[in-house]
Design goal:
Length: about 190
Amino acid sequence: MSTAEIRKNAQAKMEQSIVAFKNNLSKIRTGRASPQLLDSIQVEYYGQHVPLSQVANVTLIDSRTLSVQPWERDMGAKIEKAIRESDLGLNPANMGELIRVPMPPMSEERRREMTKLVRSEGENAKIAVRNLRRDANDAVKKLVKDKEVSEDEQKRSEADIQKLTDKFIAEVDALVESKEKDVMAV
């Protein structure tokens, strides 16, 4: 494996970390409704627990209301129960073939808790990126130890990996800042 391959591999893994971080952020509630908010909810379906998106269509009615339309008529009660029992603090209303999920306004205290959660997720993403940097640098050091590349090449490679790490850390910071603004907006 060459230093270029190590760098390319590290970059791909860092991009995956950012994608996972964005996915985690989409599950954190803001003042507005978002269909991704219900992605983490599991519903019992013929003895199996499956994601809500596999048994119903989740859409946005307006900025504060979600609509959940089950694909099977008898799933309405199970979906309503799963949403109510989730830790999202939502109170769905079953309208027969459609379940309306209004987003209650968040208190100032709840918004502050959400920003702490956003920062925590951001820190976890940064740790993941830094661990990938460490792994890449270790791989380069192993190449030097095995005399496959020179020490000058090691220094260049470590500098490239650091630039890559800085880029992804800055992206995480920007995402955290953007999500905090969303959460704190009334």
